[in-house]
Amino acid sequence: MEFNITTEKLPDTTELLELFSQTKWANNRSVEDVRALLKNTNTYVVIRDEEKLIGFGRAITDGIYRALLDDIVIDKNYRNKGLGGQIIDKLMDRLKNIEEVFLNTGEHLEKFYQKFGFKKATCLTMTVKIKCNT
Question: What is the rounded average pLDDT of the residues 122-127?
Answer without folding.
Answer: 85
